[in-house]
């Protein structure tokens, strides 16, 4: 749909254009709100980052040992070793000690089967 305006109609053209921009902006915001939030793009981390991030502050040699025994999730490109923060977080959570309430719930669930 095209419109032709003369110089005299310029204010009307600007008004029409503003209305169209407002409508498109509203539609865009409505679409963004209806879509689920996307996860942030994860970045690659190196061993120096892991040394700083590790809550136990293990030595570099300890991490090399864990990597060589495939105890920790990692990626290797040439001689460089990389990590994803989400995978390191999951690995760290894997050492969670269950509370007595967690154990009781697990036992109750097993006995109910």
Written account of the structure:
- With 113 residues, the chain is mainly α.
- The protein has a domain at 44-93.
- Helix content is 56%, strand content 10%.
- The protein has 5 helices and 3 strands, in the order αβααββαα.
- It has helices at 10-34, 47-53, 60-68, 85-93, 100-112; strands at residues 44-46, 75-77, 80-84.
- A 3-stranded antiparallel β-sheet has the order 1-3-2.
- Strand 2 and strand 3 form a beta hairpin.
- It is elongated, with a radius of gyration of 28 Å.
- 2% of the residues are buried.
- The mean pLDDT is 84.
Query: Mean pLDDT, nearest integer?
Result: 84
Strand percent estimate: 5-15%
Q: What's the total helix number?
A: 5
Strand order of the largest sheet: 1-3-2
Shape: elongated
Oligomer: single chain
What value does the Rg take, in angstroms? 28 Å
Give the topology.
Elements: H1 10-34, E1 44-46, H2 47-53, H3 60-68, E2 75-77, E3 80-84, H4 85-93, H5 100-112
Antiparallel strand pairs: 1-3, 2-3
Concise account of the structure shown:
It is built from 5 helices and 3 strands, in the order H-E-H-H-E-E-H-H. It is mainly alpha-helical and 113 residues long.
Which features would summarize this protein structure in a list?
three-stranded antiparallel beta sheet; 113 residues; mainly alpha; elongated; 3 strands
């Amino acid at each position: 749909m095209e419109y032709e305006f003369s110089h005299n109609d310029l204010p009307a053209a600007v008004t029409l254009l503003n209305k169209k921009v407002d409508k498109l902006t509203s539609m865009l915001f409505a679409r963004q709100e209806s879509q689920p939030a996307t996860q942030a793009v994860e970045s690659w981390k190196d061993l120096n980052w892991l040394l700083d991030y590790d809550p136990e502050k293990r030595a570099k040699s300890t991490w090399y040992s864990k990597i060589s025994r495939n105890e920790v999730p990692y990626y290797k490109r040439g001689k460089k070793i990389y990590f994803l923060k989400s995978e390191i977080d999951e690995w760290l959570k894997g050492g969670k000690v269950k509370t007595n309430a967690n154990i009781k719930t697990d036992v109750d669930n097993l006995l109910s089967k």
